[in-house]
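Box 3.1 A note on notation
Throughout this textbook, protein chains are presented in two layers. The first layer is the amino acid sequence; the second is a token string describing backbone geometry. Keep the layers aligned when reading.
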Amino acid sequence: MSNGVENRERISNSFRYGKEITCRAKLKDVFERVEIRDLLVVLASLCAIFNYGSSWTGLTGSQLTLLRLAIALFACLLIGLRFPWKSLELYEKAGLTYCGFVFIEGLFGRISPGSAWVEGITGALLFVVPSQLRRKYGKDLAGLIICLMTCLIIALVDIFAIATAGRGFVTQDNEFLFSSNYLIGDKFLLAYMNMLCFALLYWRFPSVQSLILFGTISLFVCSVIECSTGVTGTIIMIVVIALSYPVRVVPAGRFFLPATTVVLAVVAVAFTGLLTWGPFGHFITNFLGESSDLTGRTMIYPVLMSLFLKKPLFGYLTGNGANQAVTAACGAADAQEGLFHILLTNGLMGVVLFLIMECTALRDACSMHRREQGVYAFIFAMTACSVVEINLGLPLLLGLSFFAMSLTSDE
């Protein structure tokens, strides 16, 4: 009896101090124990994230939205429409509340409401599916299933992107066009999914060798598709993970990253000059090769607050509605800032629900193990990059859900 207590204490201490904890599930377990229906649920949930491209599907934007909506509803039917609320974790309830709010606002939106429906349903799936798999198979095998399915899909997309030298399907000599025509959509989504794969593979193989190998692959792909945000995000991930050896020095806690998201949004709007000051400006212009005005962002940020004040509580209801408001105000395509995009789309209510969701998903961040540090680094990098991109979407929600699932004990 005493030996059992000592062993549990020793394991608990190894978790607490971040020693290397590896996934005990094996690849053969996926084929022997996992039902086909569960694999289809994961596949459909992932496919609903992607916005694809009209150049190879031959579909219009509305038709692509309907396709994604059909895929998401198919996943819902597979797992059952009745979610067991009493058995859901707090972070699941917070995630479903935020995604439900996004969906409901879409019902009242006049401009492309289908995109809000897809975001709401798919986001809810990304919070429910990992935990449902954990309850059924344990978090080791659940994490392996998600890691395997995600990385297989993105590997195929990466091979295509590399084979076409980053050009995608479009053959014209137009950088803007061919940057948005990969198998799963635009270059930003492809970059974020590569960063997520880096995090998931590090979760499966937490070692210095994995950090170097998978970090290099993510950097290479982001460079091929010419996504400076992906390059920056991958570098941040590598630094954050590297700083966890031998002792984690990067701050972690339920409030740190949500507070950082808010601070970066305030800096972008109220202190825009800081983003191009000194070493930041040198990194942007000389290393990333971007313009000194952050590709026009310094002209966009000053108008965001006035747009928010016009509809502060519930926003413009849909993402495209918010984008059209920005276009009418300054000619830009969108807000180019993650939290302000949510603020303009879903208003103050949406931002509050988003931050609550993030806080609940990160509530055990202080006690994360070595393998979770890769997923935490992904969330950290997406938060840092949100100051210049609208990246607080579905890939981040999957990262938050996976992180919380991995730190939840098996029942």
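Residues 113-137 form the longest helix (25 residues). Residues 322 and 328 are 10 Å apart (CA to CA).
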